[in-house]
Structures are given as C-alpha cells and as structure tokens.
Amino acid sequence: MFNYQKYNQAWIENADAGKPYINDAKSYGVEVFQAEGNEVYRVLGAHHLTGDENRFNHHLFVDVLNRDGQRIQGKRIYFTQSPGGDVHEAIIDKPTNEPGTNIPIWPNDTVTVYTKSANYVSDSVTGIHVRHPDEGQHNRLYHHSFYVCFQLRTGEVIDPPPPVEDTHLIEVITITKHNGVIVKKISMEYEIKC
Known about the structure:
Elements: H1 4-16, E1 22-23, E2 31-33, E3 39-48, H2 51-54, E4 59-65, E5 76-80, E6 87-91, E7 101-104, E8 111-115, E9 121-122, E10 124-128, E11 146-154, E12 167-178, E13 181-192
Parallel strand pairs: 1-3, 3-9, 4-11
Antiparallel strand pairs: 2-10, 3-11, 4-7, 5-6, 5-8, 8-10, 12-13
C-alpha cells in the first residue's frame, strides 16, 4: 500500500499556507471543481499513483478529514461511474494504515467523486479513468489508480494559477563528454513561444 499519509500532510500544509489544492493527475484528465461557500469539504489534493505505489491496481482511493486533519470514520462519499450516471456510495471505514475507502475503476468508467452532509457542500473531482497507456511495470492500460483527499475547511475558493499560455513541455537531450565518458542527460523543460 502506498503512503497516503505523506500526501495528506503535504496537502494540509499547502492549504494551511493559503495555497490552492494540488492536482498532479491533471495530465490524466482529472479536474477539480470547487464548490461555493465558506465552510466546504475542500479537495486538498488529487494524485495519480506511481507504478510502485499502484502495484497493478485500478482503484480510486479516497479519504475525508475533519478540520483537525483527522479521518472522519463512517463518512460517506458519493460517486458516479459515468457523467450523468447513477450515484453510488462508499463509506470511509478502512484501518488507518490505508486510505479511508477505495472504489474499483473499470475500463469504461469515468468517475466523479464528492462528499456532502446536511450542513456542508463539497468540491468534486471528475475525469478519473483507467484508459491510460502503460507506464512501466505496475501502471498498465486499465491498471492505473488515483488518490483524492477532502477536508472540511473554512475559507473561500482559492483558484490555482492559470496555466502559462504559449508554452509547451519539450524533452531536452544534452550529450557531454566528462573525463572521457559520454554522458547523456534527458530533462523536461518548458519552452515559451515568442
């Protein structure tokens, strides 16, 4: 099982510093929609599991935290498996050595997840699916997993910064000779169009 608690801790620190949620799964089509309101179950983060974290699973792992950062055991989350599809429930009921609940993601699913209560609305996370290409040994077609964490928080919507326009990511290959050894360095950098 992956160390979900390190993500929770980093995401809480990020939110406490007044920064927007973290979505490292955006390149996989995952989007966060923020609800209006002063007290809301906010998305702290959305994460696409690495191959070592995933180990060939195909799940959405979810946790819901109270204002103090503690899991709300017994809390219900709601999800659809397709846009406009039936709403299903899952319960935060797992032991603390794993995320609060998990939902299998099947090849044709495109999951949206949120939580709510009588008094509070929730952000939602959409576009979660497993139709992504192979990435090494443990993330394969139909075998990708994601982690989303919500926390009941006070405060207005904090929008992430808009993407920088007129840029794209390029692969830069640098070949040098160091002490008679040829060294090949590959890096990803943003190129700004002029």
